[in-house]
Amino acid sequence: FNAMVPQDRPEAKITTREKKLDFLKNELVRRALLYQAAQDRGLDKKDEVLQALEKTKEELTVVELVKTEAAKVEVSSAEVEEYYNRFKEQLKEPEDRQIREIMVPTEAEAKDVLIELLKGSDFAELAKQRSKASTAANGGDLGFLAKGSKKFPQFDAVAFADTLEAGQYSNVFKGPDGYYIIKLETKRGGKLRSLSEMWDDIKRGLTFLKQQQLIEDLISKLSQDAKIEIYEGEIK
């Protein structure tokens, strides 16, 4: 009852069972009286009312047909397992990567930085000293990034390369504003949920898709069996 009544209305303060029953009875009585008065005046025979009733009847009947047809759909265990095995890579949780960057204007400078890294220099310190990116003062730290969220396609491809492991840095690559070297600090996410964890979601999704296809097939069959004419000249 409370969920049906906005909490700022007086009836929201009706809390006892007796008061709720009294309120509902009064509402039903008021509605019945008004409906009877409307009938006595013949308002239920007005064209607008009849058209609205017919439209409502049509909509409710179509909804009932769709529900009846959709209830026939079944998804087997084999279908759920097949879907999981086919799309398991896409079903992984999104992976974020903490990335640091060093960006310098020329390729020669970038190669010098790479040599320093190969000698064992700290990436964050080199970023502070040499990088021209806005992240330099923070040791080149871009924080955690999701795939597709940063700068330009080549940056994304390097940052999320399968061969780049935590603690490693990339080779030099070119961007629109300079030459880059990036370091992968750590990864999070990217876990593949088990079949049992995904079961209900997959079954629900497959059920919906099969229901949609069933309705489309029904409409197609009905269209073939029916004789439909559209008078385009009547459309204004």
Give the topology, please.
Elements: H1 17-40, H2 47-70, H3 77-87, E1 95-104, H4 107-118, H5 123-130, E2 141-146, H6 153-159, E3 173-175, E4 178-189, H7 195-225
Helix pairs in contact: 3-7
Outline of the structure:
The protein has 236 residues and is an alpha+beta fold. The chain has helices at 17-40, 47-70, 77-87, 107-118, 123-130, 153-159, 195-225; strands at 95-104, 141-146, 173-175, 178-189.
Strand runs, count: 4
- SS strand fraction: 5-15%
What are the segments in which pLDDT stays under 50 over at least 5 consecutive residues? 1-5
The SSE order reads HHHEHHEHEEH
The structural class is alpha+beta
Contiguous helical run count: 7
Radius of gyration from the alpha-carbon trace, in angstroms: 33 Å
- Tell me the strand order in the biggest sheet: 2-1-4-3
Helix content: 40-55%
- The outline comes out as elongated
Sheet with the most strands, sense and barrel status: 4 strands, antiparallel
Instruction: Look at the structure and give the mean pLDDT.
Output: 88
Q: Could you give the distance between the termini?
A: 46 Å
Give the quaternary arrangement of the chains: single chain
How would you describe what is shown here?
- 50% of the residues lie in helices and 13% in strands.
- It is an alpha+beta fold and 236 residues long.
- Strands 2-1-4-3 form a 4-stranded antiparallel β-sheet.
- Helix 3 packs across helix 7.
